[in-house]
Amino acid sequence: MTAFTEKVINIILGIPSGKVMTYGQVSRIAGSPRGARQVVRILHGMSHKYGLPWHRVINAKGQIALRNDAAYKEQITCLEMEGVEVDINGEIDLAKYQWHPLLDPLER
DNA sequence: TGGATGACCTTAA
DNA sequence: ATTAAGGCCATCC
User: Fold this and answer.
1) Which of A26, A41, A89, A108 is 20 to 30 A off residue A65, Cα-Cα?
2) A90 located within any domain
3) Is residue A13 part of a domain?
């Protein structure tokens, strides 16, 4: 387990209900500008074991990155249950629901 | 065009 | 076999 992974996990765990974050944002805060894919990997692979709120992490477009899988619908259900308005196409209003963890010098 | 993004695939322990 | 870390490149705007 690397510091990067821990950071990512910590960030994800820090996302409150009703809020979401993007891969790029998480990866940037974690310290890797190009590490979005690792965030993806961590979510996909480790969330299952660690019980991370993977459903609160979406892509930078404000949409569900998943396809029409069961997980896709599951994520929408979870998000709506938390109060996040999810469009029929899986689009989420980042302006309202994107979570800003701390003051990030790297972000923005 | 160029830059940012990514729900994977591969290798290592 | 399982679990974790790492990355480069195609795709979209």
Assistant:
1) A108
2) yes
3) yes
Q: Tens-of-pLDDT digits for all 108 residues of chain A? A: 898 999 999 999 999 999 999 999 999 988 888 889 999 999 998 998 899 999 999 999 999 998 777 889 999 999 999 999 999 889 999 999 999 886 444 443
Strand C contacted by A35 CB (< 7 A): yes
- Covered bases, chain B (protein CB within 7 Å): 4-9
Query: Where on strand C do bases come within 7 A of a protein Cβ?
Result: 3-9
CA distance A93 to A81: 16
Q: Whats the size of chain A, residue-wise?
A: 108
Instruction: Give me the domain span that covers residue A73.
Output: 3-97
Q: Which nucleotide is nearest to A38 (CA to C1')?
A: C6
CATH of the domain at A89: 1.10.10.10
